Amino acid sequence: MPNIEETLPSAEDPTRASAVRKALWKLLPFLILMYMIAFLDRSNVGSAKQALHTDIGISDAVFAFGAGVFFVGYALFEVPSNLILYRVGARRWMTRIMVTWGIVSAAMMFVVGDKSFIALRSLLGITEAGFFPGIMLYLTFWFPEKERTRVLGFFYFGYPLAMTLGSPLSGALFGLDGIAGLKGWQWMFLLEGLLAVIVGAMTLFVLPDRPKEVNWLTDDEKNTLESVLAAEEAAKGISRHGHDVLGLLRSAKLIQFLALYGVMQIASYGVVFYLPEQVSGILHEKIGFKVGLVSALPWGCAVLSTFIIPRFVQRYDAPRMGVIVCLAASAIGLVMSGSGMSSVALTGLCLAAAGVVTVQAVFWNFPLAYFSGLQAAGAIALINAIGNLGGFAAPNIRALAIHFWQTPMAGLYAVSMAGVVGLIITMFLPRRTPARVQPAL
């Protein structure tokens, strides 16, 4: 098969470069905002853990199950949601997703016990299903493969930014305790859920589906961008049956991506759901603004690593090495975070947060370069759906390990093993992305 890079305008072509640059600045800020709100609404339950235990008696076991059950509904509805988005367009479907999950997230303020907690967490997963793979698919509608690594690096700023800004925000909202007869954690769920509803409504008017629909690209820029994207999709479709969705079930490469993404998510949510509680223990303070502020530090480190590491990956064309370095950092950091020394524990949390965030920005280069068309819609959704069951596994693995060995360190060691398993799987990835597509940052 001929190298399509030889027949298309190169990434250095002025018209193509101008079109990509405009799309990046027009679309990425809003996409990052959407991703920040998504992560805030799925992870703010970690900030509420202590209050839910004190105020309504949610036990550690029920919290672990409820925190993780989000990903069961998420996984069940992920693939159909992404296939619908492919058919009806991102603008309409993303609006539906954000508005409904925002309503459910705000409804978390009405939790009164175990059943309502688990039910609303399940419903939150169902309503948010399709959001992340929808964004991944949407990026393929706008950005050629050559430029997509850079775009992924920028997009993943949303994850650590959500935690960097969200931890102090959630802690500050606890200060509204008593106003209008509501607890601080109720205000947190209400206001952060309403934020998703507002931004979701804006999506209908802000997010264009395809380059041909906008007036901020010139005709030459639209034609160049559309021709590059169409040629890339055609090349993948011819060689890999890009519209054969059922063919995914025969893909050994997909199985590898599923397994790797799953263990990545175990490590990730082993950090996300428990970081505020770990910082609370380090500072010997109840969760509030101070704990939220210090909890932002590890996520600030993740912002920095997400900015730096993908650039080294691009420079040396070494995505596999990037994944290895990040997974090793997450495993080592999780173990360090259980240290009795405050400085070592906080350093470990910084290392773990940087690793679990940045590895995902590097990982997605592989499946996005491998699948296309409807197959891409299904593959991205399936990887995210099954992989995100790691988010269900993480809190339950920690809880079981702590119960069995009767020490919090056991939970950290158990979750850190996910990084080790990920390292083994990563060794079977290609050293570089497909030769036809070289990453660029």
In short:
The chain has helices at 14-43, 49-56, 60-88, 90-107, 114-128, 131-140, 145-155, 158-173, 184-206, 219-240, 252-272, 275-283, 289-315, 319-336, 342-363, 365-370, 373-387, 389-405, 408-426.
Helix content: over 70%
Order of helices and strands: HHHHHHHHHHHHHHHHHHH
The rounded distance between the terminal residues' Cα atoms is 26 Å
Structural class: mainly alpha
- Report the β-strand fraction as a percent range: under 5%
User: Judging from the principal axes of the Cα atoms, what is the shape?
Assistant: globular
Total helix count?
Answer: 19
Number of strands: 0
Largest sheet, if any? none
Uncertain segments: 238-243, 435-441
Radius of gyration, in Å, reads 21 Å
Mean pLDDT: 80
Folded structure, characterized:
There is one protein chain. The chain is an all-alpha fold. 76% of the residues lie in helices and 0% in strands. It has 19 helices and no strands. Helix 1 runs antiparallel to helix 9. The longest helix has 30 residues, at 14-43. It is globular, with a radius of gyration of 21 Å. The model is unreliable at 238-243 and 435-441 (pLDDT under 50).
Q: Which characteristics define this entry?
A:
single chain; 441 residues; mainly alpha; globular
Write the layout of secondary structure elements.
Blueprint: H1 14-43, H2 49-56, H3 60-88, H4 90-107, H5 114-128, H6 131-140, H7 145-155, H8 158-173, H9 184-206, H10 219-240, H11 252-272, H12 275-283, H13 289-315, H14 319-336, H15 342-363, H16 365-370, H17 373-387, H18 389-405, H19 408-426
Helix pairs in contact: 1-7, 1-8, 1-9, 1-10, 3-4, 3-5, 3-6, 3-17, 3-18, 4-5, 4-6, 4-9, 6-17, 7-13, 8-9, 8-13, 11-14, 11-15, 11-17, 11-18, 11-19, 12-13, 12-15, 13-14, 13-15, 14-15, 14-19, 18-19
